[in-house]
Amino acid sequence: MSWLKDVIGTEKAVIAMCHLRALPGDPGFDAAKGMNWVIDRAYDDLTALQNGGVDAVMFSNEFSMPYLTKVKAETAVAMARIIGQLMTEIRVPYGVNVLWDPVASFDLAMAVDAKFIREIFTGAYASDFGVWNTNVGETIRHQHRIGAGKVKTLFNIVPEAAVYMGERDICSIAKSTVLITDPMRFAFQD
């Protein structure tokens, strides 16, 4: 059984994005409207997505622009508050994506009991927000150190607004990503 079937209940899942409005610390955050306004917008989006029949939802800080590759604490904390307040309304499996920080994504997943995350884990990129270098070894070790080994990972192989800095095709990148992040899949069995 695939993890999609196990976690979401179907092999061909529709995972919808619940894009959270700008959060405290983001240039676009409206302090006059405050967090309750952000939570209300997230509630409206979550309700519409679930009523539309999606199989799962992923919460993301889409409006935390310009993006950081290592977010400040207030971003993940605000996301945890929002998801925590929506918890009784969530009727489908859910994941999180703290753009563009895989460590913060795992931390948030553990805090809100999310079943999966999506993030950039591997590669070096030239992006609209500067040169971006990941550290998959550090990230996967962090995942296991905090007990998030069962949190499923969706790998964004080449992020939008960025180009891979090496001269490799996307298939080669995907194959090496699987090899370095799940080496036991290729281990010799006695």
From TrEMBL:
This protein is called what?
Sgc region protein SgcQ
**Would you say which domain of life the source belongs to?**
Bacteria
Q: Which Pfam families match?
A: BtpA (PF03437)
Family recorded in the similarity comment: Belongs to the BtpA family.
Q: Cite the InterPro entries for this sequence.
A: BtpA (IPR005137), RibuloseP-bd_barrel (IPR011060)
Q: Which SUPFAM superfamilies match?
A: Ribulose-phoshate binding barrel
